[in-house]
Write a structure and sequence with these properties.
Elements lengths: L1 H18 L4 E4 L2 E4 L2 E5 L4 E3 L2 E8 L6 E5 L6 H13 L4
Antiparallel strand pairs: 1-2, 2-3, 3-5, 4-5, 5-6
């Protein structure tokens, strides 16, 4: 029972964090998310209907993911992000 409650709590916390608005700035392989600077790492996913940015904050041990849906930003910015992630060399 405790494991089930813990799982539901963690899932709710993760869902809340993913739904939060993020301020993102991409400059080549560098990325800033909500004021935290980092680097884009290999493993990002690019599709016309979904883009998942994998990045690692400076000094962090683990990577983080940032899902971006097409209706979250304007079309030109979404396309530019997809092009950067698709054609940037693997890091």
């Amino acid at each position: 029972m405790a494991a089930m409650l813990w799982s539901v709590g963690i899932a709710g916390h993760a869902f809340k964090r993913q739904r939060a608005a993020h301020a993102v700035r991409v400059d080549g392989a560098s990325i800033t998310v909500d004021g935290i600077e980092g680097r884009i790492v290999a493993g990002s996913f690019v599709a016309p209907w979904l883009t998942i940015v994998r990045w690692r904050p400076q000094g962090a041990r683990f990577t983080r993911t940032l899902p971006v849906l097409p209706d979250a930003i304007d079309a030109a910015t979404f396309r530019a992000l997809r092009v950067i992630l698709r054609w940037a060399p693997a890091r």
